[in-house]
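Bug report

Summary: structure tokens for Protein HflK differ between web form and batch submission.
Environment: batch mode, default settings.
Steps: 1) Submit the sequence below via batch. 2) Compare with the web form result.

Sequence submitted:
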Amino acid sequence: MKPPSLPSLRVPRARAFSATPVILLLLGMTAWSSWYTVPSDSVAVLQRFGKYQSEVQPGLHFKIPFGVDVATILPVKRQLKQEFGFYTEGATNPDQYSNTPAEESPMVTGDLNAALVEWVVQYRIAEPVKYLFAVREPGATLRDVSESVMREVVGDRTVDEVITIGRQEIEAEALARMQQLATRYTMGVSIDQVQLKNINPPAPVQDSFNEVNQAQQEKERLINEARRDYNRVIPLAEGEKDQRIREAEGYRLKRINEAEGDVARFNAVFAQYQKAPQVTQRRLYLETLQQVMPAVKNKVVVDENMQGILPLLNLDPKKAANKQKNQQEAQP
């Protein structure tokens, strides 16, 4: 008698298991996660099991996949910025603005007035290793440092200085203090510029501050106009003064030279007079006549023995004029 046959076990084709797609998927994920690209304006900080390994320069690089190696890319050649009191749409830096910008702008000045201050901090990542490992959340820390320094600098000045004439001093002092604190905290950043944007008084007193600002601008305009007139008039007056002085000096030298020449000429004539008085008197008499006689229109030469000269003078000007006219008509 034959024993009963057992039914044969057959696996359905739909339930058949194949490891080939899984292996291919794992290989693809491994290849995909084992390489990375560092942009030209950045470097990558490579960590293996969380420990720092090296700084990787721009280009295509490979790493151990599945989280063994982690590459953090930092834009060291790009200038980053942080905005305070406002924000710009489309920012790529996650630390560029805070969630509550309206709470950052109100500040108290040194004269116990209020002002709404908006500013921008521009910085670069100078030391990537310190930026990642020396300070927890370096971007947020830099924001706290910037806000603290700006409130301190603004609190040392009056509201008029903050709104009008003290902007450059505030920017320079805030930049120096921020860089000093960033170096002390080993944040690995280099602060390039601190720039004040809009500085306004609170809304209830904004109209009054605008009037004060306009008055300050009018004052500066009048001062500039006065300086312009000063620079135009004063050099002209200085030039005229120098010209008058030079003319006076020239006139003084001229009179001195003329006087010295007259003295020398008189001494020379006097010396000749002492030698021959009569000759000198006659020469002086003749020289004087040479100067005087050309200016005399009518000349009458008489003998020294003559008793009178009235017969020789023409005392009737009308008769003399008629006689001269007749002579002219008589001439052909």
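Above is the batch result. After comparison, the two runs are identical; trailing whitespace caused the diff. The first strand starts at residue 35 and ends at 38. The chain has three domains: 21-74, 80-201, 203-281.
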